[in-house]
Write a structure and sequence with these properties.
The complex is a heterodimer.
Chain A (H helix, E strand, L loop, with lengths): L11 E5 L5 H10 L3 E5 L10 E4 L4 H10 L3 H9 L4 E4 L1 H6 E4 L12 E6 L10 E8 L5 E8 L4 E5 L4 E6 L2 E7 L2 E4 L3 H4 L3 H9 L1
Parallel strand pairs in A: 1-2, 1-3, 3-4, 4-12, 5-6
Antiparallel strand pairs in A: 6-9, 7-8, 10-11, 11-12
Chain B lengths: L9 E3 L2 H11 L3 E5 L2 H10 L3 E4 L4 H7 L8 H10 L4 E6 L3 H9 L4 E5 L20 E5 L2 H9 L4 E4 L9 H23 L4 H8 L3 H10 L5 E4 L6 H9 L5 E3 L1 H4 L4 H13 L4 H8 L26
Parallel strand pairs in B: 2-3, 2-9, 3-4, 4-5, 5-6, 6-7, 7-8
Helix pairs in contact in B: 2-4, 2-12, 7-9, 8-9, 10-12, 12-13
Classes of the chains: A alpha/beta, B alpha/beta.
Chain lengths: ~200, ~300
Amino acid sequence: MSESHLSGTGKTVGVLALQGGVSEHAETLRGLGAEVVLVKKAEQLQGLDALVLPGGESSTIDRLTRILGVRDALKSAISGGLPTLGTCAGLIMLAREIDDPAPGQQSLGVLDISVGRNAFGSQVDSAEALLEWRTPAGEVLPVKTAFIRAPRVSSVGEGVEVTARYRGEIVGVRAGNVIGISFHPELTGDTTVHEELLGLA
Amino acid sequence: MTETKDFNENITGSPLVKRGLADMLKGGVIMDVVTPEQAKIAEDAGAVAVMALERVPADIRAQGGVARMSDPDMIEGIIDAVSIPVMAKARIGHFVEAQILEALKVDYIDESEVLSPADYVNHIDKQGFKVPFVCGATNLGEALRRIAEGAAMIRSKGEAGTGDVSEATKHIRTIKTQIAELQALYAVSPDLLYVKAKELAAPYDIVLEVARTGKLPVVLFTAGGVATPADAAMMMQLGADGVFVGSGIFKSGNPEARAKAIVKATAQFEDPMAVADASRGLGEAMVGINVADLPAPHRLAERGW
């Protein structure tokens, strides 16, 4: 397959690079042909076709977005329609409300869901799993993935579509150009969700 | 609302899941804490995880005696106090302390030279545990032996409890240089890797993987003697994925400010002005001991085989 057939060819995708599983997303996106920008400053959000908020420690990433002054720029870029994928801590960042925030922890409030952190137990309960993923076209695709001290979506607002469930809980959602997932396809090499993001770009 | 169902298939305790948590800690600072109050200060400062222990390394050094796993009540108190991952230390080779820590549902076990070793020959067989382990290493061979035993994360050892960063520098540089040498060898004469594996006293298949990829198959943090924002930023520039800070925070004059400053400097390690800003007005750093003044039997980094 030539480069031009890859879903990321000609597209520039930012990965928020304050803390966490940044390199795995960058490698996945480069593997799909995209240019990757590691975003540490507000001005690096200019000119992006899509954005990934990676996994990591959500309370740390939240604090760093404020210390480094990228929070407002992130909020306005995502609200302004920049196609965005949030994974695990990134899903928590997107949410309107966090059920159980660390003291002082805030979210960006750009996706009308509430989330519960560490909803599936401690690290010994972290697991690899095969999920069903519902595409925008209504197709159901298998996604091989991993849950690492993962959050759950505890409620969804109007216009938010549920795309995946795990152990009875909502773990994938989509609303407009924003996709939020509790899990880590970037650790298993499954590119289904990343390709969907690139399709929005 | 569209309904989807899950397949209910799940595999816990796999290498991917164990290494995966360490992947999520990258770029972060893991702080030693001895009370729930300290754990909350660490969480509030932006630590990605805390290490629960009874005495920080500087006090273990000062007080002497045998250092062991902490009291389960103390560990559970810290688990209950914070929402970030909690790590705890087991003695080298003490697989029952590890079983206890797994039963307490700590998120990571540090098989640590900071505690008194329980076995002077064997480390814990870490493959059989669902909870992941981090282990110390002073060089590549030691790191790869720990990975072969099942370690899902490596930290360069440094010399804990000193506030002297020189050993941390030496160990991270050694590991990084040895990886680069393997990579160079792989490019010109991969047939020499068999003898290289023998020299490193590490399994050939892991040596080959490192030579091919140019990195460890697990996350590499650094530890031991980090006391200032500049120390943390230097470790990051030397190629560490993140930093452990032991005595450096709660043995300093203003732990809250220092903890925040080290988090900021670790995130912005490439920006000297940001590290400068993080370094302002922190008060006294921990007093510290020069490693050169430590008699050899008191050097913790030499524990582990």
